[in-house]
Write a structure and sequence with these properties.
Helix content: 10-25%
Number of strands: 60
Radius of gyration: 33 Å
CATH class of the largest domain: Alpha Beta
Largest sheet: 7 strands, mixed
Number of helices: 13
Number of domains: 4
Shape: elongated
Length: 934
Amino acid sequence: MTRSCLCYSCPCLVLLGVLSVVCYAGSSEEQTPRLYVESGINHSARSVAWSMDGRFIAGSGIDRTIRVWSVSPTRELLAIENEADIVSLAFVSNDRALLTLDADGFVKEWNLLDQRLLGSQRCSDTRSATSLAYSKDRSSVFCIDSKTNSIREWNVTLTKEYPSRTIHATSPLEKLTFSEGDHFLTGLDQSGILHILDAPTGTELNTSRVPLNLDTVAVASKLDRLAAIDSSVGGHIEIWSGLSKKNGIARERSLNINNPHAIAFSFDERTLAYASEDGDIVLLDAASWNEKARLSSFSNRVERVGFVPDSKFIGIQLWYDSLVKWNPDSGSPVYDGELRNEPKLEEQWSETGEVFGRELRLANLKTSISLQSSQQAEIARLIMLDKLSGWVAVTSEGRFDTNMDLGAVKGVHWILSGNPFSPLPVEIFMRDYYEPGLLPRLLACKALESQDPKSCAKEFKTVRPLASLNRVQPLVEVHAEWKDEAAGVATVRVKVQSNTDAEMKNGKTFTKPYDVRLFRDGQLVGWAPKTSVEWQLEPPPTGPKADELDLARWQEKTEIRDLEKDGSKELTFQVQVPRRADLKQVVFTAYAFNEDRVKSATASATLVVDKPLKPRMGKAYLISVGVNRTASSPIWDLHYAANDARQMSKVLGDKLEGTRQFADVVRIRLVSDTAEQHEAGEAAATKAHLGAVLDVLAGRRRVDEQLKKEIPGIEGVEKAEPEDLVLLSFSSHGFTDSRGVFHIVLEDIGPHTTQTVNPESLRKSLSSDVLSGWLRDVDAGEMTMIVDACHSEATVAAEGFKPGPMGSRGLGQLAYDKGMRILAASKSNEEAMELGGAIKQGLLSYALVEEGLVEGKAAKDGKVYMTGWLNYGEQEVPDLYKTGKAKGTDGKQPLAPNGRDIIYLGPDQAPPTYQQPVLFDFNKQNVNTLISAQ
């Protein structure tokens, strides 16, 4: 029997996948955003320099890339590839140009706005050029040629050379280095004497005996200090004082730093930066010498890439022979996989292979991998942020995807109008350009282009015109303190504020805050204003101006009103934290949206648990819904949905009780069956009854005598708390509407309702949008939903759903925000089956309950955990067809009530995914309840 069964074409499944660098069509530069990937110096940073105002830092490494970061916020802004290693760096006074000295002896000047080479001069014919600097008035460029013991000088544009100067020192010097512009010059002689000279005059200011392995030196004249790298025994940084004293400098302290390669003081001398072996540029406070910031490296250089023989994998060899297997079909990588144990296998890799029946070429760009057509036209670009166990996939149109948490994305930002010095956070265009499953979807539609040239245009929706988008982000701050630490109750204050940016070229320079959301360790626990739920519950408008009307309605219901004169408002939330003895801290995060639903930056606050909380043993709430009969019977009748609900309640409830980890296992059965089959302890499966149970769990309603009469067992239901488990299961018919939104049929679907999508069935069924509104206040630590119905993937993957902080309506958005797990019995365009014979259940319910729990097939090492149990159900249902178990006991093909045959072709011929469940797991806290211990 099928459980759905309205005829509607449903939206395709959206999978999590890849990221992109984008330029969308348009004549104005304002219309060409580009996604920049902050991969960092792949390995071993070797040089570092500060801008004069301290806002920017430049660095380079042995990957031969020059990179520039902003200091606050710490963000990589641009990268330039050079032909040789960089020895020394210096910013031009306006901080929009950079001077570099490479190991081949060339001085080069770069335009940082477009990464263009402006000029080049050779400082030394050998690899003896060691340092460069600007004159005090920034009108000249100096370079040291240590072979000739001279300083060469050009004008700032490198078009004219002036006479060179000889370095006057009492001994021949090595490791000559400019420090603090051209004010000081330091060098080490062969006997271990450090010489400090006045660079403009060449006068020797001071000398001091230092270790012979002293390397790069940085001078802070106002602090009367000198910092130098001692390269012995893994390297460390020595701090010396008494620079102005004539009797030599004195060692003040030694900083235990692993393999530093270059150092530089900021011009205000408050911060010391050093280039590290792992590729990071690290900033130290010059008063305490504690680390204050780190400009991180996120990736290693790509050494080799190719298709692995006799497999569908792409092999990627990274720096130091770290190997990654990439599956282009699913868009997922495996780090340090089996290939690492087969070091010669990469010798057989091929640059061409076949994906979805179409030839694909691979090109190694060192910092990324280009996926190309057979004609070498780029389809997408793949960046491995392997130090984060992350990846990014990029297309030329601006679509993107990543495996990183979209609420706290690292390593990517947008560049607009070609200006790298005005980076825009990824949240700005995320709603439009984030495409889950981008890479496999893109490769699949490209493979179909010969038959359907518009296949990719159909797959990827046109984005809204971004030139008119308000990109001003509201300001958000979070502060947390204990209200009652013994009871685990925190007071969290979220300050939101309007914001203005006069630089916005589209004229949208102001926004108020909208739709504030507060999270406890990644789980939604509060929001404002409360009227936002009204927008959540109402169906969206239709017609040619539907998006415009929906945005206006959203603005009306989610705007934060009654702001102070400065445009701010403080929102206060009382939040219960999990009462566990091992809890050390709780992280609260919050964000808001602007008037165009562009997300703000995520604000955070950490609340420390000073002493162990008194543990609370939670409750498990099992709400089982099964609908065999409705008010429109026999049109919507099923045979075994009631059995699903009863078995789920009994077997799962008994197993949970056996683990003894809950103070109580509360079972609510909402079952609609024939009068003859009705069992004690059941209430009718109506919207009113389900809404009442969820109202109590959410704390919106108290249990009264009327509810006790109507719903057996509800007296055990209380407001859910972070230690509790809520598991909600549905077995019924399901259908999707024209927007792809899922609807569940309950008993009160109404009399004479036909199996068609019409206003009557839409109004009387339970939509996933309404269900998400009911669940929003439920603050259980673990929430799981199982939907054994046709088309049930659409409970989450409705039209336009993207798993991220999008501020959208729907159960998918709530599941992401709440960290829920939802197991759907079938894809959006598939039916879910129920069978008689030995099964007498829906296939998913049977796989979970009978096989997974009763027979213990979902157990690992004798134990069944929530995630493993749901994964078992997802994988087992297709196998029921392969093994022949999904057929009648008499061996004949059983018939569904609508006359559709369930075709059994045998284990070798059966379709591998005749009915394919889909698991959406958005749990961010790694909560994984023990269900059964055998």
